[in-house]
Specification:
Helix content is about 55%, strand content about 10%. It is of the alpha/beta class and about 170 residues long. The chain has one domain: Rossmann fold (3-Layer(aba) Sandwich), CATH 3.40.50. Strands 2-3-1-4-5 form a 5-stranded parallel sheet, sandwiched between helices. Helix 1 packs across helix 8 and helix 4 runs parallel beside helix 5. The longest helix has 18 residues. Bound molecules: adenosine-5'-diphosphate (ADP), shikimate-3-phosphate and magnesium ion. Magnesium ion (MG) binds next to helix 1. It is found in: Cytoplasm. Its cofactor is Mg(2+).
Amino acid sequence: MNLVLIGMPGSGKSTVGKILSKMLCMPLVDTDALVEQTAGKTIPELFAQEGERAFRDRETAAARQAAELDNTVIATGGGIILRPENMEALAATGLIFFRDRDLEDIIGEDHMGRPLVGKDPDKLRILYTQRIDFYRKYAQYTISDTKTAEEAAARIAALYREACQS
Ligand SMILES: Nc1ncnc2c1ncn2[C@@H]1O[C@H](COP(=O)(O)OP(=O)(O)O)[C@@H](O)[C@H]1O
Ligand SMILES: O=C(O)C1=C[C@@H](OP(=O)(O)O)[C@@H](O)[C@H](O)C1
Ligand SMILES: [Mg+2]
């Protein structure tokens, strides 16, 4: 079973994913990193040069690739929930964890590398409103009352171990 992390941009999926990978001795794959490796471009470059639609197509290919792995921590990009086919592929081989970090804490992060967010906190508020129902719908587990990335990782690791032992 893979361990799949979903949530808003800046909620800590990549950070928590790295901690979980060490904690559980499982390899880590980040769909954003897969996209960047395959394209040979950074995410801001991809959005600027090819547009969001092309990025989403690449993200779907990365989701399929990641879903073929086993026993891997998969950190996704915040928009992975935008296409049901991404979530169907990931749910077929993994448990889905939604890191529901406090929106004001998310807003406090640096979002310059995120073309859909940039410097405008209202963009995050709009994204949250548009997406929250999808994160909730696709999550098998929601982790909402943890402050630090370490705390979130510990909670997720315990839930994952419990689910895999039963
Ligand atoms: N409680 C927390 N959970 C997750 N990330 C946190 C937390 N507190 C601070 N951070 C920081 O927030 C940022 C989250 O970024 P990142 O892991 O790239 O998120 P994502 O991959 O979800 O966009 C990182 O700089 C991380 O160190
Ligand atoms: O929410 C989104 O639509 C996006 C989130 C980013 O990933 P993170 O959630 O890891 O920041 C990245 O995939 C891209 O900038 C688009
Ligand atoms: Mg990330």
